[in-house]
Write a structure and sequence with these properties.
The protein is α+β, with helices and mostly antiparallel strands. It has three helices and five strands. It has a five-stranded antiparallel β-sheet. It starts with a helix and ends with a helix.
């Protein structure tokens, strides 16, 4: 059965897309730790990050780097934190989170955004993606 992320990639579930290429897809987390919290996923459905080939892993990190740079240009923050946990969805995903303090990475406090805020934010970050 396809993961929720595969359904997002296929357009079966809507998302606030940031960037996409043949191998990867980046979109805003709908339950974000902070404004701009983004998920970067491979289009290939793989459960664990270290089950990716070394080449796929390095390409994922390169794509994540480019998304993080776009986030830095868009969101005022101390830095972009990165986390790979992956227990909640059996599909590799990199969390890129604009942070100002360590607590921003703890997945406890959540930011509330309106649909319009998500749309505007996704467009602004996408415009900064290179």
């Amino acid at each position: 059965m396809a993961s929720i992320f595969t359904k997002i990639i296929k357009g079966e579930i809507p998302s606030y897309k940031i960037a996409e290429n043949d191998l990867f897809y980046a979109f805003l987390d709908i339950n974000p730790n902070a404004k701009g919290h983004t998920l970067v996923i491979p289009k290939k459905e793989e459960n664990k990050i270290f089950d990716l080939s070394k080449e796929e892993y390095l390409e994922l990190m390169d794509f994540s780097y480019r998304v993080a740079k776009a986030l830095e240009k868009t969101i005022s923050c101390e830095r972009i934190g990165m986390s790979v946990i992956g227990l909640e969805v059996p599909h590799v995903h990199v969390h890129l989170i604009p942070i100002n303090k360590m607590a921003d990475m703890q997945f406890v406090t959540k930011e509330k955004l309106t649909r319009e805020e998500f749309l505007s934010l996704a467009e602004n970050v996408a415009n900064n993606f290179e």
